[in-house]
Amino acid sequence: MGGPGDPPEGAPEGAPGGAEDEYRSVVFDESFVRAARLQEYSAHERMTDHTPAVRRRPALHRGLSRQALVLVVLIALAFGTAVYMGVRNPYRAPEARPPVEPLRATVVPLVPTGKVPGATGAGYLYAHSPAAHYDVGAEGIPLPAVRRTAHFSESQVVAALTAAKDYIVASSLYPEVLTGGQVNPVRALLDAGQLDQFDQSLGHPAADGRHTPTGWLVRFDPARAELADRAIRVQGSLEAAETDPETLEVSADHTFVYALKPTGSAAKARASLFTVRRELRFRFSQDDLRLHQVQLTASYAEAGPLSCAEDSASRFRPLLAGQTARAGGPPATDPYATGSATALCGTLAAGAQPSV
Fold first, then answer.
1. CA gap 351, 335 in Å, rounded
2. In b/e form, how buried is each residue of 162-184, taking b as 16+ CB within 10 angstroms?
3. φ, ψ of residue 277 in degrees (nearest 5)
4. Nearest to 218 by CA among 263, 259, 256, 161
5. Is-contact 182 176, C-beta < 8 A?
6. What stretch of H or E contains 260?
7. What does the pLDDT read at residue 11?
8. Between 286 and 19, where is the model more confident?
9. Tell me, what DSSP letter sits at residue 264?
10. What is the pTM of this model?
11. Cα separation of 4 and 8, whole Å?
12. In whole angstroms, what is the distance from residue 140 CA to residue 237 CA?
């Protein structure tokens, strides 16, 4: 049976469904009911208390959800921490590093007064030369007793001496550097500020005191000579000192004696001795000590037997057993002595050669 407003037969098929259809789009869910400001009393409440039909509900206190509140607190803490750290540790731009001092190199070739002495055994030559009691290889480059300085710890002084020794070993004793043309073992130890000068020296050598390869390292012309004995004799000293609060300086003075023979000759070929005295000065910044690098700022070398007519700036072209050259003219220079020569070409003292 239809409702009061419907025909007796009910609503015709296809016609609107009366009041129910009219309010079908209105949904009174629980949240809507709870949010209502007016609330109707129940029938029991109206009969008991004689109260009005409806009562006013207190407004709901809508606040932030717990997750939102936690997020706000975290953001506030992060901001406060950032401000605090900024005050305690203000950003400072890195200080500009002082420029690296370029290398100044001097190479003095020493000319023999007669024929270069030779023998079939390198050991015999060493035994009859001033290098008879020299140590072999890196053993001839001992580290001195170490003390801290005003601004550098003992470990930092040791680091400077060790880096200087490693450079001397790589540039004076490695066979692949001496006769193989390798430069990477030496280059890897240089401060980055000197790499351009080093590369220019090797790529475009010049006897100008700035681009002299034999100031950086010892190397022989592989077309002329090769090592007759890899047991190179060495003697010398290292000394460290503080030059200013930011710089350590290491001075090195070593004499190296090489046994050479003609390239490609037989094992029993006559050998001769070639002597190089190297005075090197290194500087070390804090970064150099940390990175195990050196700044080679001065290099002074006396080397012979050589001919003054040969270019000794790029590679040493030694005079070998039985060869002669015209004397250099200046007073004889002994590379085993401690005095420094000042001539651009000197005469190799007779006492510096083996007595054979």
1. 10
2. ebbbbbbbbbbbbeebbbeebbe
3. -105, 125
4. 256
5. yes
6. strand 247-262
7. 53
8. 286
9. T
10. 0.71
11. 9
12. 9
What is d(CA 240, CA 157) in angstroms, rounded to the nearest whole number? 7
Across 172-199, average pLDDT = 96
Place of tokens 């930011």: 246
Quote the CA–CA distance of 291 and 313 in Å, as a whole number: 30
Rounded Cα distance between 275 and 304, Å, is 6
C-beta separation of 189 from 291 below 8 A: no
pLDDT: which is higher, 356 or 46: 356
In this structure, the dihedral spanned by the alpha carbons of residues 111, 114, 115 and 121, taken in order and rounded to 10 degrees, is -80
Indicate the SS3 state at residue 273.
strand
The answer to whether the beta carbons of residues 193 and 99 sit under 8 Å apart is yes
Which pLDDT belongs to residue 46? 63
In angstroms, the CA 15 to CA 22 distance is 12
Asked if 250 contacts 173 with a C-beta cutoff of 8 angstroms, the reply is no
9: DSSP letter: T
d(CA 168, CA 252): 9
Residues 6+ apart with CB under 8 A from 347: 110, 111, 112, 113, 327, 328, 329, 330, 331, 332, 333
Q: Yes or no: say if 353 and 118 are a contact pair by the CB < 8 Å rule.
A: no
CB atoms within 10 A of CB 110: 29
Assigned token pair, 228: 């007759």
The pLDDT assigned to 207 comes to 87
DSSP letter (8 states) at residue 88: H
Question: Would you tell me how many other CB atoms lie within 10 Å of the CB of residue 225?
Answer: 25
User: Which of 110, 326, 124 lies closest to 229, judged by CA?
Assistant: 124
Express the helix, strand and coil content of the chain in percent, nearest 5 each.
30, 25, 45
DSSP string, 193-256: GGHHHHHHHHHS--SSSSS-HHHH---B-TTTEEEEEEEEEEEEEEEEEEEETTEEEEEEEEEE
